[in-house]
Amino acid sequence: MPDAITLGELLIDFVSTTIDVPLGDCPAFVKAPGGAPANVAVGLAKLGISAGFIGKVGDDPFGHFLMRILSREGVDTSHLKLDKKARTTLAFVANRSDGRKEITFHRNPGADQMLTPEDVDRDYLSTAKLFHFGSVSLSHSPSREATLYAAELAKELGLLVSYDPNWRPPLWDDYEDAKRMIWHAMRFADIVKLAEEEWEFVTGTESLEDGARKILDVGAKFVVVTMGEKGAWFTNGSISSLVEPFEVDVVDPLGAGDGFVAALLAQLVNRKAEEITGDELYKIVRIANAAGALTCTRMGVIPALPKKEELNSFLEERRTNLCLP
To answer: Which CATH superfamily is 4-317 part of?
Structure first.
């Protein structure tokens, strides 16, 4: 049974072949498997952590393609369901050189939205050490209820709970509802990761220290903010630090955050968040920065997510004296 379980959206990304072109003007797209929680599951598997995924795709060619991809990458798909009524969600993505993205989703509804609390198996979760989820699955019912049920159950079972409140405006009809649901789920999380461009919307402040204090006050042990070419910032409430990035030739920035999260969690899955020192956190985030950078060097997220050997070779080449155990 998997040590790490992720839950949420699994979809097809159609990624623009050009950078810095508005989505409507993009001349061509490349099909790629996507969905942040599924990407993280694959990233963990590539880094040597047994991983499983809970979600739904359509019983259609895209859904079967996605199931094959996850299985091929070593992710347990025994709790990935096929929905006969809803189609697999599609997302069209235009990337910018500063790391920001323009995304539009085609789901009305998408199969990922149809995950129900009944699809979440308590016995399956109870075998794991870590649970990871995001906020996209909170945008509509019944996946909203399924996500909250799973997160609360994981907390109750004593799993380390990781949360990525990935703010995707096109998916929400009401932004205040989005903020309310994002914060409702925050109380289950031990680890919270946000991208810099989402920070002010979610926390209501530009200040990293002030926003992180709000998150820590509802129960998180560790907050990390990915900042693209500036690196990443973290705090555990007593120690805060900016962690320098790795410079690479960027081919496709989509999924850098998922590569970062996978490497972060691969180092935490067998640890208790409250027992990790500030010096250890710095090294953990530095290794995660390397994984995020490597993910940018190839097209498509899942093909680009680094394997453990690749990540450690990269760290050795950069003479960091760091490695993923």
So the answer is: Ribokinase (3.40.1190.20)
Q: Which class for 189: exposed (0-12), middle (13-18), buried (19 or more C-beta within 10 A)?
A: buried
pLDDT in tens for each of the 325 residues of the chain? 999 999 999 999 898 888 899 999 999 998 989 899 999 999 999 999 999 999 999 999 999 999 999 999 999 999 999 999 999 999 998 878 776 778 888 888 999 999 999 999 999 999 999 999 999 999 999 999 999 999 999 999 999 999 999 998 988 989 999 999 999 999 999 999 999 999 999 999 999 999 999 999 999 999 999 999 899 999 999 999 999 999 999 887 888 999 999 999 999 998 877 778 888 999 999 999 999 999 999 877 898 999 999 999 999 999 999 999 8
Q: Where are the domains of the chain?
A: 4-317
CA distances from 210 to 187, 215, 244 (A): 17, 9, 21
**Residue 119 is among the residues annotated as catalytic for this protein:** no
**Predicted model pTM:** 0.94
Please identify which of the residues 112, 173, 258, 279 carries the catalytic annotation: 258
